[in-house]
Specification:
The structure is a single chain. The protein has 277 residues and is mainly α. Helix content is 76%, strand content 0%. Helix 3 packs across helix 14. The chain is globular, with a radius of gyration of 23 Å.
Length: 277
């Protein structure tokens, strides 16, 4: 009886903690949505108006705002390009680190971790000067390439951990069947670690989509991303809170839906690499 009551209390506590976490996570999004659907007067009413007549004016105004739709499409393109580059290079790099032994291998692994931990402002100024000279400033490919400083080490570390979970017997069997290293990677490692690779791609996409500091420094107009467009609603003398909230919802919604749809791949992929580091 005592154990049963204790189990019930623990279950209730777990539910309460989960509910609190959900409320804390959803509150900023719900608040942004409410401001985006209110008039300026209702948005700043005290006490806050919980019942109001929603309007779509702020969302419709985004369509007429110069550069906003283009910034959204830029984010889609840069995210797809950045993820593609990171995943392709990370697959080959992770396989090489896992499969071969070479001098400085441990140092290389440490360098990947340090590169991922470097703060963004350390390389923004040098990259700004370099990009101005070679013509990559304010370009999609330039932005996608500089994102590899963070996304590529992250992708290599994750995919490497997934490759470690591939049974060595399958590796040996592929050699007996006459596969070279490229064939083994294609027919054994990639199919076995596919959920982990998908999870890595999803997490990388979320990071690139939400990044602001690099995009703000290395773009001006042509390759401006959605996060920079949202930040531009803040003026020197005033802030259009309604349109800024609507723009924030538009920026958050794609990755939010993407994460909800792909959550099973994230959980399955991260669980795949949880037993071995």
């Amino acid at each position: 009886m005592v154990d049963s009551r204790r189990d019930q209390l623990e279950r209730l506590l777990a539910y309460l903690i989960s509910l609190a976490a959900i409320l804390i996570t959803l509150f900023p999004i719900v608040w942004l949505l409410s401001v985006a659907l209110k008039t300026q007067r209702d948005a700043f009413a005290l006490p806050p108006k919980l019942l109001f007549e929603p309007i779509a004016d702020h969302f419709l105004a985004l369509l007429d705002r110069p550069g906003f739709v283009e910034a959204f499409l830029n984010s889609v393109y840069v995210t797809a390009l950045g993820v593609s580059i990171a995943i392709v290079i990370a697959i080959f790099s992770a396989y090489g680190i896992h499969r071969f032994r070479f001098r400085g291998q441990r140092l290389f692994g440490v360098w990947l971790l340090l590169a991922y931990m470097l703060p963004e402002f350390l390389f923004i100024i040098p990259m700004y000067v370099l990009y101005q000279r070679i013509g990559l400033y304010d370009t999609h490919i330039g932005l996608a390439l500089v994102y590899q400083v963070h996304s590529l080490p992250f992708a290599v570390w994750l995919i490497r951990s997934f490759f470690k979970d591939v049974p060595a017997e399958l590796d040996d069997a592929s050699k007996i069947d006459g596969c070279n290293h490229l064939g083994t990677l294609r027919h054994v490692y990639i199919p076995m670690a596919a959920p982990g690779i998908a999870a890595t791609a999803i997490l990388t996409a979320i990071w690139i989509w939400n990044e602001l500091t690099i995009a703000l420094s290395l773009t001006f107009g042509e390759a401006q991303t959605i996060t920079v467009a949202v930040a531009s609603f803040r003026g020197y003398t005033s802030i259009n809170w309604g349109q800024m909230s609507a723009a924030s919802i538009v920026a958050v919604l794609p990755m939010l839906c993407f994460a909800v749809i792909a959550q099973k791949y994230i959980v399955k992929g991260l669980t795949l690499g949880s037993l071995k580091g």
